[in-house]
Design a protein that fits this description.
Chain lengths: 271, 546
């Protein structure tokens, strides 16, 4: 990991490190629906970064475009100083991805899936098997390693997906809702692995709509709503005066003072 | 269901009259939304609609022309009978991807089976298939109806036969949805699908044999049976009424009406059971998984090359065995690829060249490679960063396919030649098969890159999502025609050798076909690779709709 950071600094030539991810003027529209409306982002390297926002804010769309899985209508994306769409060779080997809502090769066992992914990444077979064994152990999947992924629970799927994303030791890891539908025990395991991974100098970018989680994990936050970035910066900067990230977030997305008691008066009334 | 339905007056009662327009509208919006996704899909859908309309129109015209012919009744009854059989089998093999008809999607709604049946029946009358069947039924009635009574019978018979067909199809689909909710059930369904596929072949040969024995009149005994079977019996009734045997006509109409009632009852029962009993998928989770050896790439897979080639081949081959959709496609292709040439040969009517059919059937597995991955294609996409990677990926998939296909093609050719005792033609047939296989791999690789489509994994026998059916058929049909054209040089050479009396040189077709097939396959993959590498996000979007 650290050698990549040095490399980035030397090409830049200045004191400021190359950001892990730089996004400029990114747009994506699906039919009449504008999912991402011209966002600019600069995510520093070596940080635990949270991309937060309500459902439909454009988090998944943004992450898909940043990881090369969805073609943007407009805009520029760089990962570690390399253009994602012009220089996929440089970018794809440096990133790990865990998308949300896409399948895995579920008819492989957990171990076979890791063996497959690692070899596709061009790692030597023996190394893949060694790393797979360790990852399966750490993520508490060793007992289920020969079970087909199709029979895994949600938490196990997220963990095997995470293992597959980590296998080639990427510089930047993109996780879309890694804790969604995951039981507390698996969530804790995932957290521990991610914290250890960022400590080595790697960058984690993950999306979530659970503010408490983001607040406890991240040191850098970008807030997204309705396809735009509402705020980005260190946790303290984004939180500002607000008592918690949750209230700062509600303020930012303009949902702070919404009153719901007027309507829905039938709810809980006489049946 | 019953437990969940509150008895309070605040809950609006979902009545049958309100449900029908809702479902018809749902079906129409699903069709429309499927089309809205891209203009290419729209074009494909519209062209398949046009083809269906042309076929239907041609059929009606043909039947109208037959009016007055002595065998018109025989033919009309048999046609409707075959179409009814088709309706029974269709949901198993060429599903329309009709989400309105998937009862498992409706389980959570407070709907009772009885009104639901009506709504589902009416909404399943919307579409190309019903249109085609209605055209056939109307054409048949025109062909057979003579006299006022027969005309009246015909007015009843045409919609009746359509309703029987649709109800039959829905019942088969619903009864099988239950089977497929568990993983184990899905594997069983693969076998049932195979039985039907094989059955069709036998029916096909029976029909051929009858045809040879003396034209339409030899079909009369079959028609005499079929005209009393539901769906076709409605048309049979029109014929009987024309002949003046009103008793038989009434009986035949009654058979269809009773069958419709019975099918609706059966369907109702399946639906009721489906909507009120626990999902079978929970049973699958309790199933113990098979233990596998802890070491990777042991045994056979250890022989595959390292790197992407071996890795991709290994996964492809594992999927042939483990993924029900892939397995079903393979088993069907293998079975039909063997049955068609060999059965023809056994009947003494075939030629050794029929063995090329196996190459065609198996080569088809190269089509929609990435669709077979489903949205898991992202795992491939994140590791493909250059044209070279895409080339190796496609080549590995082709190699995995060849690992099964090459020996199998040779085997089918040998068996066919043995049955016919036509050994001299064998090398030529194998050569021609190789050329065809190469052409199929080439067009399959290109179609995979250019026309990917989703294969739904959740539903029963669905192979295409709504709105992509046209795309799928056009891509496969176009690919097969192109493959035939691409193998033309070898075909022409074969024909020439036969016509010019150079039978002694037929063996030369083996090396020529092998070299040509290798070349054309390589070229196709070569051409498909940059297109795949360029279109990764588009392919992922296209295959993620299941």
């Amino acid at each position: 990991m650290p050698e990549h950071v040095e490399h980035a600094e030397s090409t830049d030539g200045t004191a400021a490190a190359v950001p892990a991810v730089r996004v400029e003027g990114l747009w994506k529209r699906f039919g009449d629906q504008i999912a991402v409306a011209g966002i600019d982002l600069e995510l520093p390297a070596g940080k635990f970064i949270g991309l937060v926002g309500p459902n439909g804010a454009g988090k998944t769309t943004t992450l898909s475009m940043v990881t090369g899985l969805l073609r943007p209508d407009m805009g520029r994306i760089e990962v570690g100083g390399h253009d994602v769409w012009r220089d996929p060779v440089e970018v794809k080997s440096r990133i790990g991805v865990l998308p949300e809502g896409l399948r895995l090769f579920e008819r492989l066992s957990g171990r076979e899936l890791l063996a497959y992914t690692g070899r596709l990444r061009g790692l030597p077979g023996a190394e893949v098997d060694k790393r797979a064994t360790q990852l399966l152990d750490v993520l508490d999947l060793a007992g289920a390693q020969h079970k087909l992924v199709v029979d895994y629970s949600t938490g196990m799927r997220k963990k095997i997906g995470l293992a597959a994303a980590l296998l080639h030791n990427p510089e930047v890891l993109f996780l879309d809702e890694p804790f969604e539908g995951v039981d507390p025990v698996s969530a804790q395991t995932i957290r521990e692995v991610l914290v250890r991974y960022t400590r080595s100098g790697a960058t984690v970018v993950f999306s979530s709509h659970v503010m408490e989680l983001v607040e406890s994990l991240c040191d850098w936050v970008a807030v997204m709503a309705a396809g735009r970035i509402r705020a980005q910066g260190t946790l303290a900067e984004v939180r500002g005066e607000a008592p918690s990230l949750q209230s700062a977030f509600l303020e930012l997305v303009g949902a702070g003072g919404r009153e719901t008691s007027g309507s829905l008066d039938w709810l809980g009334g006489t049946r | 269901m019953t437990v969940l339905t509150p008895a309070g007056p605040a809950v609006p009662v979902a009545g049958a009259p309100a449900l029908v327009p809702v479902f018809v509208r749902l079906k129409l919006s699903l069709l429309r939304n499927g089309l809205r996704r891209s203009s290419g899909r729209k074009a494909a859908y519209v062209s398949s609609l046009v083809v269906t309309l042309l076929l239907a129109a041609g059929q009606v015209a043909g039947l109208v022309l037959l009016r007055g012919h002595a065998q018109a009744g025989t033919l009309a009854v048999l046609l409707v009978g075959v179409v009814a059989l088709g309706w029974a089998v269709l949901p198993l093999f060429f599903p329309s991807g009709d989400e309105t008809l998937d009862p498992s999607r409706l389980v959570m709604l407070p709907l009772r089976a009885r009104p639901l049946i009506g709504a589902l029946l009416v909404s399943s009358l919307v579409g190309m298939g019903p249109l085609f069947t209605m055209a056939l039924a109307v054409g048949s009635v025109i062909a057979v109806a003579h006299g006022a009574v027969a005309t009246v019978a015909g007015v009843v018979a045409a919609p009746l036969s359509l309703l029987v067909c649709v109800a039959l199809s829905r019942w088969v689909a619903t009864a099988n949805v239950r089977l497929l909710t568990s993983r184990k059930g899905r594997d069983l369904a693969v076998l049932s699908g195979l039985v039907i596929a094989v059955g069709i072949q036998f029916v096909n040969f029976g029909a051929q044999r009858l045809g040879q024995a003396g034209g339409l009149s030899s079909l009369e005994p079959a028609a005499d049976v079929v005209r009393w079977l539901p769906a076709a019996s409605a048309i049979g009734a029109v014929g009987s009424a024309s002949d003046g045997s009103y008793g038989a006509a009434a009986g035949q109409l009654a058979v269809s009406v009773l069958a419709l009632g019975a099918l609706l009852w059966l369907w109702h029962r399946s639906l009721d059971k489906l909507m009120s009993s626990p999902d079978g998928s929970t049973l699958a989770a309790a199933e113990p998984s098979r233990r596998r050896s802890g070491t990777e790439r042991s045994g056979f897979f250890g022989l595959l090359p390292e790197g992407r080639t071996g890795t991709v081949m290994e996964r492809s081959l594992r999927y042939v065995v483990r993924d029900p959709k892939t397995k079903a496609a393979w088993v069907t292709a293998l079975a039909i690829g063997l049955i068609v040439p060999v059965l023809n040969a056994v009947q003494g009517v075939g030629s050794v060249y029929f063995a090329c059919f196996a190459a065609g059937m198996l080569g088809m597995q190269m089509y929609n490679q990435f669709g077979q991955d489903t949205s898991a294609f992202w795992m491939v996409a994140t590791t493909l960063s250059s044209t070279r990677d895409a080339y190796v990926e496609l080549r590995a998939r082709a190699l995995a396919l060849l690992l099964i296909t090459l020996p199998y093609t040779v085997l089918v050719a040998v068996v066919t030649a043995a049955v016919l005792g036509d050994w001299p033609a064998l090398p030529g047939v194998v050569g021609l098969s190789f050329a065809l296989l190469g052409a199929m791999l080439a067009t399959g690789a290109l179609a995979s890159a250019l026309f990917p489509y989703s294969i739904p994994q959740d539903g029963a026998f669905k192979n295409v999502v709504p709105g992509q059916a046209g795309l799928a058929w056009i891509s496969i049909l176009g690919g097969m025609l192109t493959s035939a054209l691409l193998s033309a040089p070898v075909i022409v050479l074969t024909v020439w050798l036969h016509l010019a009396g150079h039978q002694g040189w037929l063996w030369a077709l083996l090396p020529v076909g092998a070299v040509y097939g290798t070349f054309i396959g390589w070229l196709g993959i070569r051409l498909a690779a940059p297109r795949t590498a360029r279109r990764l996000p588009e392919i992922l979007a296209a295959v993620s709709k299941g």
